[in-house]
Structures are given as C-alpha cells and as structure tokens.
C-alpha cells in the first residue's frame, strides 16, 4: 500500500476519530498552535457519554470546548503545563489545573512517567514522502506521540513547514487523520515596552558585546531589549531560545541577527522550541533556512546551553524576596504562567564560562485598586518559588543591577533593597532587621 492510499484509509471525520476516547482516559492535546480545534469540539460533543477524561496541554489561546461546555467538570478535567492568558482566566474560575515542570524535562516525562491513551494535535499536511511536520510547535510533540497508544492528527493547511530535529511523524505511525477548515493562525499581540522596561533594557544592552547569543522570555522585555539593541552598535547576534518571538524578527530585518559569531552548538543557525507572534514571524521561521526548531530536551538542556559562546539569558519575574528567592509564575497562590525554561536557562548560563543570566522586574506594581506595591518583598508569602536562592545571580530593576552570586544573606538584603523603589526601602530595612538579615554596618 502506498502512502497516499494509507492516508485515505486513515482519514476520518472529527466525530469518528474521537470515538476512540473512553471514560477514564488521559488525552493529550498539542500545545500552543498545535491545539486540535476540530477534535476538541468533537470530543466536547461526546460529553454525556464520557466521565473522568483528563486532558493535558499548554499555552492554548483558542477556546477549549471540553472546558467551556463542561464548566461543572462532570466529564472532563483540563490541565496545563504553562498557562496562556486565556488559560489563566480558566484557572481563576477553577476550570484549569496547573502541572509543575521544568521545560527541559517535559519530553522525558512523556517517555518515562506519563500515560497517554490518546494524543491529538495539529500538523502540516503530509508531504510526498509520507511525513507530517510539527511546524512551529516542536517543543514536546515527538515525545507526546512516542508515549501515546492512539495518535490522531488534525491537518491545518495554514501551518508552515519548519526545519529542525525530531520535527516529523510518518503516516505509518498515525492511527487517524482529520481534515477540515481552519481560520488564520493565532497572532500574539506585541507588547509595548514601558519606560521602566526601557530603563532595565538599557542597563543590560550596555553590558552586551558583539556576537552575543540571546535567549529572551515572554513579555514587554523582549521588545525593550531589541529596541535598545537597534539603537546600539551591536552586531552579529545569535539566537538559542525556547521561544521565537517578533523581537528577534525585528533584529533580523535590521541585519543584526546573523549567528555568524555563534559557536558551541549549530553554528550559523537560530535555534528555538516554539514560535508565537505575528504572521510575519511564522512566515520568517518557515522561509529562512537558518531557522531550526528542536524539542525542549535539546533547546533547554543546561549542558547544551553551557557550551554556547557569549550566551545571554534575559527573563522576567513577578517578585523576589530578601533571601533572593524568585517567583516568576505565581502572584501569591494565583498561577500566572509556569516555570517553563527560566530555571533551565538560569542554570545553563551560570554553568557557561562566558554566559550571563539576567532576571528583570519593575520595582513596583499597581493593583486594581490603584495601590502601589513593592515587587521586592521581605519574604514570599504564598508565592511559588521558581528559582531558588542558591541559583539566583544578576537581578535588574529600573534602579540598578546586582549580582547575588556568592553574597551572604545580609549582603543580599542590602543589594536587593538598593534595587527597590525608594518609597519602600525603609520598610524593607525594618523587615531585614527582624529577619536577622541586616548588620549594623549595612548601608542605609
């Protein structure tokens, strides 16, 4: 049987394909833009026939029908590895549960720890050799498929084919295929940097050198960093990042992103796990032969990161306490996002003999009632620790930059209070004294 006949034999409607799901099954959806829209709707339509079906995914921006149509969770339980803004709203309503992880370990979880009865994900159409491409969603796709008892692919004609490693699945491995119409790919809004973001970015860029290889997290900071780079004399930058964002596209358009000075892994190539941004970004990563996507157990492997020359990791956090513990995924007990790869890159950059890691935060935030709070706290009360104090290195706010590596507890308190907003420094000093973190000789 040739591959095209095999494809035809495995073709099903969404309603037919989801009949394989049974009560009590673990179902994994592809994350980000590989979320199976048609299959999700078909599965939700079966809710009265099913109970205790547990679904996992991550960073989903489309309405999840198994959740929206079953708000009492009588039939489906939805879980996410990293919350998108949409999933955060579900979490606030008690309709989404969080799964802790380090991104570099997620493929291993699938291969060694997790049961996957049915895997559903979007891919590109099949090529002439029988292969489907994971497109801009390669982060964990291959490992998820390897773990699954049943594999269902939903073909999205709008997904671009991207080069990379472990980026393909063959028709012979697939159980069912679903076709149907899809709208335009989700485009993530491009955040506009604040004045505070620009002040923080300016400090970091001033320390960067030609040939730096960048990893940048989600949020306003990537755009602020790239804006500052564009106004600098830096050249021949490279990329090794779990997320490929529009900020990198802007550098490419200006001729600054070349990877010509990159060595240690895949010279001349931009490496990423998944892309999320504008249509222009998706077109670029598909058409540019220097763009390669790999699973997270390669992209976020601290051994790989530690070998990359002139590596610079830049991430955000929500708060930090006087001990140097970093909370980057929760505000109190409210889940905001997830650990993702922050600790991976923080560790890999420190293990790198010429790598640098920056954790950035504004010194304050204003709540919905207009009250200003310090992001630098005496202790983290209820906040989940993303990065332990033993791994904390360079912290940056609009008031400066401090390297906590090797500092004593009382030195850290002094360093972090220098980074706090002046209006909160005296209160932090009092707290440090009560916590026995303040010496008489400390500066005020």
Protein model, in words:
The chain has 444 residues and is an alpha/beta fold. The protein has an eight-stranded parallel beta sheet with strand order 1-10-8-6-2-3-4-5. Strands 14-13-12-11-15-20-24-25 form an eight-stranded mixed beta sheet, sandwiched between helices. Strands 17-16-23 form a three-stranded mixed beta sheet, with helices on one face. Helix 3 (37-44) links the parallel strand 2 (26-29) and strand 3 (53-57). The model has no long low-confidence stretch (mean pLDDT 95).
Briefly summarize what is shown.
The chain is globular, with a radius of gyration of 23 Å. Helix content is 29%, strand content 22%.
- Counting H and I runs of at least 4 residues, what is the number of helices? 16
Question: What is the tally of beta strands?
Answer: 25
Query: What's the structural domain tally?
Result: 2
Distance between the termini: 79 Å
Relative helix content: 25-40%
- Would you tell me the structural class of the helices and strands? alpha/beta
According to CATH, the fold-level topology of the largest domain is Glutaconate Coenzyme A-transferase
What is the percentage of strand-forming residues?
15-25%
- Please give the radius of gyration in angstroms: 23 Å
Top-tier CATH class of the largest domain: Alpha Beta
Describe the sheet with the most strands: 8 strands, parallel
3D shape: globular
CATH architecture of the largest domain: 3-Layer(aba) Sandwich
Overall pLDDT level: 95
